[in-house]
Amino acid sequence: MSEKRENWGSKLGLVLAMAGNAVGLGNFWRYPYQAAKNGGGAFMLPYFGALILMGLPLMLVEWSLGRMGGKYGHGTLGPMVYLQAREGVKPKTAILIGSFAGGLALAVTLLVNSYYNHIIGWTMGYTVLSLTGSYMNVESTGQFFVDYIQNPGLVFGFWLVALTVLLFTAMGGIQKGVERMAKLLMPTIYVFGIILIIRTLTLGSPNPAHPDWTPIAGLNFIWSPRWSDLNWQATMAACGQIFFTLSIGMGIICNYASYLKPDDDIVLSGFTTVALNELAEVVLGGTIAIPIAYAFLGPDGVGASIGLSFIALPSLFREMGFGQVIGAMWFLLLAFAGLTSAVAMYNYLVALIMENTNAIRKKASIMVFIGYIIVGLPVALEPILTKTADLMYFTEVDNWVGNFFLFILGMTEIIVTGWLFREKGLPEINRGGYWKVPGWFYKLFIQGITPVAMLIVLVMYIKDTAAQGYYKMVPDFVAGNDVLIPWVIAGRIVVFGVVAIGCVITYLSIKRSYKEELEKNQVIVRL
Amino acid sequence: MSAGALTFMVLAWGIILTAVAVTLTQLVKHSK
Q1: Over the range A201-239, which residues count as b (16 or more CB within 10 Å of their CB) and which as e?
Q2: Enclosing domain of residue A216
């Protein structure tokens, strides 16, 4: 527990890496689609509500869990949760809570990246295909996308490029790998975003049949408050978006925070990270994809998620001036945003291996590379082998690890800090802080409203998804499709298999580190 | 743009840009 851990090289590097962790693909293709679909301007009320009620408190909790865990030599969530939980329950109970959290965190970091790395690969592939003008003269960009994901050479080639970039970044360590990548890519993302906004807003009226379809009309569409669309589903969408965009409930913020020094500020740094993420999401993300789609296709053209990026926008890039360059810039922006998030999940697993074996960083990074190849194979093989484009394995895995588990893990973290670590949590958050969290905020949110709100959201999420048939042996979204049912079942087996393995690994890890206090069932180790 | 859309956009952008300016300024100040 006392070995020297890596640290961040600079405050700027830390904040950019944390912001890069949060700024991902979701900021640019998921947010605008969610806002346009769920009430436009009115969506901002539940969105900012979820940010204040859940996003900010949970962000502070994750930073403090991570920094405290780092002090004890831990970079993964299970032992971090154990350390705080044991202050409210006996160590033998705390180890169970820690093991549960560690199991879920392993599933999230291993399996979200199993498909996320593929999407990064697609964006890299589309960057090259934009520059070479490959989709400029095709009949349908929809069919072009289907052909892409069924082409083994393209899919595997660019996937391996993405994984290799992540491998070398992780091998470089915190300062020379992760921090250096963030310092290079994060400013580029903002610069590309601004260039794309300028190009978007100068599109004029590109569809002669509809002169009223302009980028400004697109902005009007995304920002006009449609109160009738503001319902429970919109509120759930806002909560989900906040979790997804801030990368909370995954353990990766905690992992990055574990490389802080024990008295480094976390309050102001955490708020800065959130502000930079919201800048990328609401200001940049909200001003590119939807206004472009609206200017060419009108209100009916903005209702797709992945399809918006890989099908609708390419069909529009070929109609606009400098479309090849703009297209390449859009996909490179997505690739960079994806890489800065994927490397956080990658590093979590590197830390997990280093913590539980004697492996050095280089060896651990190679092991994670192999692990991602194995878990990513089904995502790539499904469309190639079945000649379909439904991506059902991806959908099933994402339903669990990209949504459900985030809520459960986030709720576990806030309950452990607010209700088990209790009053010790406030000074732990405020230690060394440039800004201090007031006591009333801690009591009102972290110990009160936030866990309750998250419990309500979790219950409603389970109710909604149960009504949609997600928890049946054969989920409704794949029912009747005999070719793809085995892929969905396989996805479910993989998800729960990884959770089970993660729980066991975490249990053994905590037991090894805190053997004596677990035997005596009382807290002994305090730093 | 409609007045409603403009109001929501200006408010959201205003809050976020202010938050970015304040937090970054404070961070730079404390980092010296």
Answers
A1: bebeebbeeeeebbbbbbbbbbbbbbeeebeeebbbbbb
A2: 11-517
